[in-house]
Write a structure and sequence with these properties.
The chain is an all-alpha fold. Helices cover 77% and strands 0% of the residues. Keywords: Membrane, Transmembrane, Transmembrane helix.
């Protein structure tokens, strides 16, 4: 047996029997969900060309993730100026706010096919270039129709990236899923928050909303650089090729992942879209209500850092139960004392609870044995899940318009949390999509 073969064989044996470990380095079986050859980028020798390629890939993933939501939150920050500048009606503005959900739901489904056809490097390079062009073009769009079309172009690139990155992590970092998911989910949250927080100040500084939107093409262009420099080795790519997994709709795991992803996203969208309105109705002034929403998003960032790592270290089930335990007291605090001192507690708990999102991103890798399985699971769950997510805020607004009361909307959030709980119990149990579709 050659040295390389022995190393791969040893890695597979180590992955196949994690339960035999003991001591402080013991880890949950979900950390190594399936025996697989160790790709050289997954654990490269220090100082080697493989190590340099590995770090270049890490940089590419992190920089790309920063850009996946900037096209969304940068618009929301200056929507009033944008509507005035383009003469946009309320109906079209409503379409603009739902366009990201439609893009993520419809266009993310094409990512697996594109990944198989072109490979990860051309796919992410092309997506980031498309995003840059879309962001620049929409900033100087002459009318609303062109603005929407260019926005869709930028959002399509983000949708493809959302699905492609978990596949790349599974392919090149099969033994580092928790750490890599932490890296890109945290960067995704940071990019989302930075775009939301700084677009309006840039608008005020320059006096031009078009410049404030166009600046977000710059980080997308910078993110292309690592992908142009990265040269994947044939051995690393051959160790975990991106194939095709058929019949995903027959998998109960895939449907439960779709439901879990959709419910957690719907809850997050409802909180992001309606929290300030609810608090204002409870007597809180606009600035304070905005700060409460800011508190929620700030709490999410450090929690998102530790959730994927703990998911791999402890196993998904205990982490999931801890996060879900935050929802009942958060809902109760907001219901009993909305606008009062308990609002702080509610926002902190909601910030922790909505960090189910990075846990589910981690499960895309842990619930598949192959990159093909991760690709199919991620695409199926996100495409359908975003349809559920988009309907959540619309349903809350519709119900509030009919009743004039927040009682039923609170019930909607509670019901979504209950469905998320039961779907989460299923997906956090160790199982693999390949085993459901191709039982032994």
């Amino acid at each position: 047996m050659t040295t390389d073969a022995a190393r791969a064989h040893g890695a597979a044996d180590e992955s196949a029997a994690p339960a035999q470990r003991s001591g402080p380095d013991a880890r949950h079986p979900d950390e190594h969900p399936a025996p697989a050859p160790r790709a050289e980028l997954a654990d490269p020798p220090a100082g080697s060309a493989a190590a340099a390629a590995g770090w270049m890939l890490v940089a590419g993933i992190i920089l790309a993730a920063f850009n996946f939501r900037t096209a969304v939150t940068s618009v929301g920050a200056i929507l009033a100026e944008l509507r005035t500048g383009l003469g946009m009606s309320e109906t079209v503005a409503g379409l603009l706010t739902t366009l990201p959900v439609l893009a993520f739901a419809g266009l993310g489904a094409f990512a697996p096919r594109l990944a198989r056809r072109f490979g990860p490097r051309p796919l992410l390079t092309g997506a980031l270039l498309t995003m840059s062009l879309g962001l620049i073009a929409r900033a100087w769009a002459p009318n609303t129709a062109v603005f929407l079309l260019c926005s869709l172009l930028a959002l399509a690139a983000g949708a493809i990236g959302n699905v492609a990155v978990p596949v790349i992590v599974k392919r090149y970092f099969p033994h580092r899923i928790g750490v890599m998911t932490t890296a890109y989910s945290t960067t995704l949250a940071v990019g989302t928050a930075v775009a939301a927080a700084t677009t309006a100040p840039v608008d005020h500084l320059t006096g031009d909303w078009r410049i404030a939107l166009a600046v977000w093409a710059l980080p997308a262009l910078i993110a292309i650089v690592p992908w142009l420099l990265w040269r994947p080795s044939a051995a690393a790519a051959a160790a975990n090729p991106i194939g095709r997994l058929r019949g995903v709709s027959r998998s109960r795991l895939a449907w439960m992942m779709l439901v879990a992803f959709g419910c957690q996203s719907a809850i997050a969208y409802i909180l992001m879209g309606w929290t300030t309105t609810i608090l204002a109705d409870d007597g809180m002034d606009a600035a304070a209500a905005g700060s409460m929403l800011g508190l929620l998003t700030i709490v999410q960032i450090p929690v998102s850092v530790v959730v994927p790592i703990l998911t791999v270290r402890w196993g998904p089930r205990p982490v999931f139960l801890i996060l879900m335990a935050c929802y009942p007291p958060a809902l109760a605090a907001l219901w009993i004392d909305g606008g009062g001192p308990l609002t702080w507690t509610a926002m902190v708990l909601f910030g922790i609870g909505t960090s189910v999102f990075p846990l589910i991103l981690t499960l895309f890798g842990l619930r598949a044995r192959t990159p093909a399985g991760t690709s199919a699971l991620s695409s199926f769950a996100q495409s359908g899940g975003y349809l559920i997510a988009g309907s959540g805020p619309l349903a809350v607004g519709w119900v509030f318009g009919l009743t004039g009361s927040w009682t039923v909307p609170f019930t909607v959030v509670g019901a979504l949390a209950a469905v998320l709980f039961f779907a989460g119990l299923y997906v956090t149990r160790e199982r693999f999509i390949e085993d459901e579709l191709h039982p032994a």
